[in-house]
Amino acid sequence: MTALASQPASPVEATTEAAALPAAGSSFYTAMRLLPAEQRDAMYAVYAFCRAVDDVADDGGAREVRAAELDRWRADIDALYAGRPVPRTQALVGPVRQFGLKREDFQAVIDGMAMDAEADIVAPDSATLDLYCDRVASAVGRLSVRIFGLPEEPGIKLAHHLGRALQLTNILRDIDEDAERGRLYLPAEPLAAIGLSHPTPESALAHPRLGEVCARLLDEAQAHYDASWAIMHAQSRRATKAPRIMGAAYHLILVGLRKRGWAAPRARVKPGKLALVGVLLRHAVV
User: What is its EC number (predicted)?
Assistant: First the structure.
């Protein structure tokens, strides 16, 4: 589940002009609406690709069916870069050419979705979790920063840190929903430290020391937010407007999770409208 694809929206495929839009009111929708038209349409095309492959990983049927469809997406991305786009990648032709989007980043997103499709992820080690975050979130960030117009080096660093910040926030926000799917993205090492050497989603979420594991991941996410802000402060406000809005909106979720705590039942954390308006007032004006 990518940070972009986890925004509420109907299932989409990148087959129509600008494909399907993210839900009005989501932080992604708001941030993208403030971009110039060419950047906005490019981001919608990337978003639609992410939604399409995310839907395959989560709801694409039997595992062998999902694997085969993700392989078709790999072939379709290769064909796109070979100058033979199929209908469902047609919306990406212009963005790839105009913004220099990299084939390997699209393929990394598919590889991340394959990690979910191949087996239910349960307590990955920290290196595997970081690889997952890189593929499903930071790879999307690498595509995005090129569209936003950031310079190469700070752009790639921003994608690294902000992608991980957003994805770790997703993981912490969605632990109950993921458990219902048989998934547990909390890393193995801190779970082992509280006595869960072979955790299941149910045993982890019921453990009285769950909060210790989540607090460690919260601190890791916060460190990535801090690094992201340091990078964005050194770049132009115009090029960083969209990621600043996304980062600030998602950080509200992280703050809300820290305040709520981890005792069951866990109410879903969602930023209030006034708080989101405050984000826009601070970051939308260049």
Answer: 2.5.1.103
Query: φ and ψ at 186, to 5 degrees?
Result: -65, 140
What are the percentages of helix, strand and coil residues in the chain, rounded to 5? 70, 0, 30
**The last residue of a domain, from among 66, 97, 128:** 97
Q: Provide the residue range defining the domain that includes 48.
A: 29-97
Report pLDDT digits (tens) over 209-250. Answer: 999 999 999 999 999 999 999 999 999 999 999 999 999 999
- Compute the distance between CA of residue 90 and CA of residue 241 in angstroms, rounded to an integer: 27
Residues in the chain: 286
Q: Are 205 and 128 part of one and the same domain?
A: yes
Q: Which pair of tokens denotes residue 178?
A: 């993921």
CA distance 173 to 206: 16
Task: Classify residue 112: in a domain, yes or no.
Answer: no
- Whole-prediction pTM value? 0.90
81 and 221 housed in the same domain: no
Closest CA to 243 of 95, 25, 31: 31
Instruction: Kindly report the backbone phi and psi dihedral angles of residue 124, in degrees, each rounded to the nearest multiple of 5, phi listed first.
Output: -70, 155
| Claim to verify: residue 158 and residue 258 sit in the same structural domain | yes
Shared-domain flag, residues 211 and 263:
yes
Residue (of 30, 97, 31, 26) closest to 240 by Cα position: 31
154 and 279 co-located in one domain = yes
Contact indicator for 240, 148 with CB cutoff of 8 Å: yes
pLDDT tens digits, one per residue of 28-40:
777 888 899 999 9
Number of compact structural domains in the chain: 2
